[in-house]
Design brief:
Blueprint lengths: L9 H10 L3 H25 L4 H4 L11 H11 L2 H32 L5 H10 L9 H10 L7 H4 L6 H14 L2 H9 L4 H12 L1 H17 L2 H6 L8 H7 L8 H36 L1
Helix pairs in contact: 2-15, 4-15, 5-9, 5-12, 5-14, 12-15, 14-15
Length: 289
């Protein structure tokens, strides 16, 4: 006799049918993914050929074999390795600083009582409506008074705290940390700093992790402020090094795209290792919020 195949439970079968995504949805998601990835692919195509590829009609969509030569030119014309290290230092320091300092400020706004708390938080939120370009002149004057022009602290310090980061952490801490938990910690003799560092911060660490990753990407791709304050090639961040590849008014698109692709590789590697945790942190914050 042939063995009788096991019969799936009705409830399990219904759950499988409910979780099954329709084929049209898969098709739309695949199309959106291809549209999102195509600019990166096109950048790689231009980086492996020359400037003519970007202006040829019909355009060439297959990679060439010129990438290693253009990459060698990138490392020869500008100190690209040093620029990558500078960007790594700047982006990592800003990301860690925002994760900790914004969490600390969000904890104060969410769980501590002090005069003017709501008014001060409203001022912080309103600063998000001000374009960042308006702060360039006063920010540069402050940096100049501190003698930080043409140094990495000029790029790092202004980015250690952001209004969005404070708002993000305040909302997450307010919905995650209960007042009863804080009262129990105070009964046990914990100070405010101990409550934050040993209780609150470990609980909201996924939200701080997501904030740090977003901040890292933003700091890595930032161009305007580093372009204003950094003058020496040894202090360039990677985006300024790519700008330095352009000779006067002539733009070699193949060379520029090669540098841009090399600058994108660290971000791709980052998302390969932390992408799942990033999505998990976002979803966790969404459900808790």
């Amino acid at each position: 006799m042939k063995p009788v195949p096991p019969i799936a439970a009705p409830g399990r079968a219904r759950r499988r049918q409910a979780n099954r995504v329709p084929v049209p949805v898969y098709a739309v998601l695949t199309l959106m993914a291809l549209v999102s990835v195509f600019p990166l692919y096109w950048m790689f195509v231009v980086a492996t050929t020359d400037s003519a590829t970007a202006t040829t009609l019909p355009p060439t969509i297959t990679p060439g074999g010129n990438f290693l030569h253009l990459a060698e030119l990138v490392f020869t014309i500008v100190p690209f390795v040093q620029s990558l290290l500078n960007s790594l230092v700047v982006a990592t320091t800003i990301a860690v600083g925002q994760a900790v300092l914004c969490a600390l400020a969000g904890f104060a706004f969410a769980k501590l009582s002090f005069p003017g708390r709501n008014t001060l938080f409203l001022v912080v939120v309103l600063t998000m409506t001000v374009p960042a370009q308006l702060a360039v002149v006063p920010q540069y004057l402050i940096i100049s008074q501190l003698n930080w022009v043409d140094s990495l602290p000029a790029v790092i310090v202004p980015g250690l705290v952001s209004a969005f980061g404070i708002f993000w952490m305040r909302q997450h801490i307010g919905s995650t940390i209960s007042d009863e938990l804080m009262q129990a910690a105070r009964v046990d003799g914990a100070t405010t700093w101990q409550i934050f560092w040993r209780i609150a911060f470990p609980i909201v660490r996924p939200a701080a992790y997501v904030l740090g990753l977003f901040t890292f990407v933003y700091a890595w791709n930032d161009f305007l402020w580093p372009f204003i304050v950094l003058k020496s090639p040894e202090n360039y961040t990677v985006q300024i090094a790519i700008k330095a590849l352009q000779q006067n008014r002539d733009i070699d698109l193949g060379l520029a795209m090669s540098g841009s692709f090399l600058a994108t590789i660290p971000l791709l590697v980052l998302f390969v290792f932390v992408g799942r945790r990033l999505v998990q942190g976002i979803m966790e914050g969404a459900f808790k919020g």
